[in-house]
Structures are given as C-alpha cells and as structure tokens.
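Support request from a user on the community tier.

User writes: "When I paste my structure tokens into the form, the page sometimes reloads and wipes my input. The last time it worked, I copied everything first. Here is what I submitted, just in case something in the input itself triggers the reload:"
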C-alpha cells in the first residue's frame, strides 16, 4: 500500500534545525506529521502538522504520544533519542531495531565489544569511569590516543591526546558530556575517514552512499566539509561497504536507517562510530539526492512504516557541503553573502549567526553548526568542492 492511498501518521523524535529536511519530506509524502522535541522553540515545529514539546529521551512519553495519535511509525531523527525510540517502537509493535541494538549504536564501548565478539578489527580501546582508571588505560594504550564520551553526540568532548599531561582536562571535558558517566579511550587511528549511509530492510543491506570528508585540525575532531562521491575507486568502495555491512551484522542491526563512520588505516578499514539514525550534514536529505538522484529519505521513511524501499540511483554528480568558519568572539559584521549565493553551483547558503551573536571556539559540531554552511553541486566531486570552498571564502563573518 503506498503513502497516498491512506493517510498515515509518523512521530518524528527530534525537531531541531537538523531535522527540518526530514519533517518536510514526511509532509511531501502525504503523511500526518507529529514532531516532538524538548525545546518549545524547536525550528522544525512549524513544518509539522502537530508539534509536541516533550522529552524525546523518555520511552514512556514516546509510547504515550504514539498511542494518542495512533501512529504508524516512529522515527529516530535525533541521535540522543535512538534508545528511547527503539524501546517505544517495541512496545507499540512498530518496525524498528531492538533496544539492544539501539544501545550498541549509542554506547560506544558496547559497540566495540560487539565488534570484538564477532572477530571484527578494532583499535585498542578501554572504558574508564574515573580519572585514575583513565590514566591506567592511557598508559596501557599508549599515545597518541582519542578520548571521547561513551554516549554523546556531535563530536562533543572528543579529543586527541599526546601525553598524560593532557588527560585530566580532557577526561573532565569528555565526562561532562557522558550520560552514562564513563569515557572511552582508543588507540588513535591514522587514515582517511568516510561516512557510510544506508538502510536495512528486513535484513537486506541497501547502500545510500559513501561520503568523503575534510576534518578539523587536531586535537579536536569534527568535519569541516563533506562531499559525494568520495575520491575512491570501485574496489575501495566495496571494501568500505563490506566493512559497514559486517559491522551492522555484528550488532544485530536488521531494520532501519544507519550512519557509520569508518577510517581506512594501513591495516584496513576500522569502525569509528555507528548510529541508528540518518546522517547529519544534510547527507540523506540533500547530498544523496544531488549526487545520485535517489530519494533516500523517502525510502528511510518507508522502512519506518514497514514498507519496501523503491528509490534508485539515476545519475552520479558531485555534491558538497562545507561549513562556514569564524574566529571566536562577538560577530560585528557579515559580508559577501549575496555574492556567495550567486556563485556557480551554490544550492543553499545558510547563516545561523548574525551581528551581536557571540561565537564560541569551534571545538565540536555544535559550535560549527552555530555559524552556517554552504551546499553546492557540480559535474564531479572536485567541482562541487571547489564551488563550496569558493563560496565559503566569499562569505566572511567578522568578529571582535
């Protein structure tokens, strides 16, 4: 049964700026949209049929809203809601991965243990609950290493450490963002990093696309630009897809939308993190359609409703999203916006700041997103990247 034959209802867990594209797609597909977010001023609310200000991290509340609105599906649009969505979906007998799988996606140490149990390659890793444990773990792993909260999002609290002298401050920062009050220390993996976005429908793996990326300067680690297709040949693409497929099997991921980060080291690909929700950076809503003509989000929503995906690739072009940058401080002026928007290939330029705003140092995705981004296309990835970088250089945020 197709979307337009019966008006179906879907509950979207998360209605922030990053979820607007998802909510719009639900509306385009003719579904009744209930957007739920803990922020009463969530930007996505104005795109939904019904806006519910409530805690998306609470499975009981999600279940209650699901019953109230007689929903046909519940969608984990926000990273922090993944576990609660899985629990509520199971209670409501709706299509979704299980709560156990959700925990393995959200809890980075649980993910590492599942990969290890399946004999898949891991970096050396340790989980620490106290600073003393973290110190012992760091000595055992050796430097450089990565420290991160075990269950945070948006690269919060993620740093590379070069010595024990840096551990105390980095541990406190990582612990601040951990809901489970534990951190993960990992051997630093050198290599190019990629994102793999896709779907699993009743155990069948469906590729959405692989994203190349440019990353921040160390010690912090977040994306400064992403693009499709990546600079890889077909055998290299196949190796990354196989790594993603095996990782999904290892955690029992049999149904839903996934986003996986992989580093290709000299020893081969290694999983960085896994997520049971669509990727950020407008990958599912903009990059995949621009690069391949595939309506990835529509298929993602179909799977949430227990329907089969139908979209296919129609072409291969270049697509790139690069984030604007600025020095920390008070924004005094913004110049070159109209000129940047008029440049070739620019599909969208979004500014999230204005004069008078105070910009924090860019140490994670939250601080990065507070500035803005440029979305571009081109005949190839190189052309799309050039268009995006040119637009970013043209639009200048002045701070004092």
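"...and here is what came back when it finally went through:"
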């Amino acid at each position: 049964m197709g979307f337009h034959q019966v008006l179906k209802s879907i509950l979207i867990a998360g209605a922030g700026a990053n979820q607007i594209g998802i909510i719009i797609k639900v509306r385009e597909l003719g579904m009744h949209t209930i957007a739920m977010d803990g922020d009463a001023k969530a930007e996505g609310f104005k795109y939904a049929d019904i806006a519910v200000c409530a805690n998306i991290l609470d499975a009981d509340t999600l279940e209650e809203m699901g019953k109230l609105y007689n929903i046909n599906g519940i969608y984990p649009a926000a990273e922090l809601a993944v576990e609660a969505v899985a629990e509520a979906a199971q209670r409501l007998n709706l299509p979704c991965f299980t709560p156990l799988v959700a925990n393995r996606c959200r809890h980075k140490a649980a993910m590492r243990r599942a990969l290890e149990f399946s004999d898949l390659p891991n970096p050396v890793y340790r989980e620490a609950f106290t600073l003393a444990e973290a110190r012992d773990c760091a000595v055992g792993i050796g430097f450089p290493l990565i420290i991160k909260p075990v269950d945070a999002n948006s690269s919060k609290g993620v740093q590379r450490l070069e010595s024990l002298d840096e551990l105390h401050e980095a541990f406190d920062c990582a612990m601040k963002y951990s809901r489970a009050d534990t951190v993960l220390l990992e051997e630093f993996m050198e290599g190019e990093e990629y994102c793999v976005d896709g779907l699993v429908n009743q155990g069948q793996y469906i590729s959405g696309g692989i994203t190349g990326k440019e990353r921040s300067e160390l010690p912090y680690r977040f994306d400064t630009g992403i693009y499709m297709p990546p600079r890889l040949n077909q055998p290299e693409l196949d190796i990354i897809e196989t790594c993603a497929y095996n990782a999904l099997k290892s955690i029992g991921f049999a149904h839903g939308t996934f986003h996986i980060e992989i580093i290709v080291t000299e020893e081969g690909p290694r999983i960085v993190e896994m997520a049971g929700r669509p990727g950020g950076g407008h990958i599912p809503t903009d990059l995949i359609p621009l690069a391949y003509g595939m309506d990835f989000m529509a298929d993602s929503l179909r799977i949430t409703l227990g329907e089969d995906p139908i979209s296919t690739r129609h072409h291969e072009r270049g697509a790139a999203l690069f984030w604007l940058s600025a020095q920390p401080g008070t924004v005094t002026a913004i110049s070159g916006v109209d000129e940047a928007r008029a440049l070739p290939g620019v599909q969208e330029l979004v500014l999230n700041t204005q004069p008078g705003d105070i910009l924090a140092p860019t140490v994670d995705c939250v601080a990065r997103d507070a500035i803005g981004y440029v979305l571009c296309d081109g005949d190839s990835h190189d052309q799309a990247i050039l268009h995006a970088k040119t637009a970013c250089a043209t639009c200048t945020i002045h701070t004092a």
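Agent notes: The reload is a front-end session timeout and is unrelated to the input. The chain has four domains: 9-94, 124-187, 190-304, 318-399. The first strand starts at residue 9 and ends at 13. Escalated to web team.
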